[in-house]
Design brief:
8-stranded antiparallel β-barrel, about 10% helix, two-stranded antiparallel ribbon, elongated, about 220 residues, Porin, mainly beta
């Protein structure tokens, strides 16, 4: 069975995510039902991360996809420019055989009371959650072992693949402060780009860089 290229897996994952959540922008909701518990924005995105060497064993890059679901924060408690919600990011196995995912809570603060020039909205963002790494044991620590015959007659050594050692999945606390911007494209649709410091706590803070690009679908 042919092995699917990681980029194709990311594209298929992103397409399935968009299809599953497409109804977000098509379901009519009366104005009276717009409460703080009603999601006001869906943001599917693609992610590109460069991880610290201690996270998966070497400095490497991951491509993935994910989504944010944002709600308006309760009035009178926080600035009206603050949105809160949750996010999920998934990156399939790459050449090192590691699959990563991240899930957590998110807060976005718009730095402008109104979009600059009617389109540009600068953002400060903070994510808090868990970063999980899962290794494919068949791709790790496998070595070829050769054993010479025990008799004194000589002969070629017998070689075989040593079984790979299974590495248990690891889950760490992760913070992801960042800056970003939304650029309005159409009514209710904007392009969003974020640059984040992905801080994974593995025996101490390990800093990685993440860039996400996606769309904001607004109600």
């Amino acid at each position: 069975m042919p092995v699917m290229h990681p980029r194709i897996r990311v594209i298929r994952f992103a397409a399935a995510l968009l299809a599953a959540l497409a109804s977000f922008t098509t379901l009519p909701i009366p104005a009276a039902a717009q409460t703080p518990a009603t999601p006001v924005m869906l943001e599917p995105y693609v992610s590109r991360a460069r991880l610290d060497p201690t996270v998966v064993g070497e400095r490497t890059r991951f491509s993935g996809a994910g989504a944010r679901l944002l709600y308006r924060a309760p009035d009178r408690l926080v600035p009206d420019r603050l949105l809160v919600g949750g996010f999920f990011t998934y990156a399939p196995a790459h050449e090192r055989g590691a699959t990563t995912s991240q899930v957590g809570a998110l807060a976005d603060l718009s730095l402008a009371h109104r979009p600059i020039a009617g389109r540009l909205e600068p953002l400060l963002s903070l994510g808090v959650g868990a970063f999980r790494t899962r290794w494919d044991d068949a791709r790790l620590d496998g070595r070829v072992l050769c054993v010479r015959p025990l008799d004194s007659g000589g002969g070629a050594p017998a070689c075989f693949d040593a079984p790979a050692r299974r590495r248990a999945p690891a889950t760490q606390l992760a913070l992801s402060p960042g800056v970003g911007a939304r650029v309005g494209l159409l009514p209710g649709v904007a392009l969003r780009v974020d640059a984040r410091d992905l801080v994974i706590y593995r025996g101490g803070p390990r800093h990685s860089f993440e860039l996400t690009t996606g769309v904001s679908l607004m109600r």
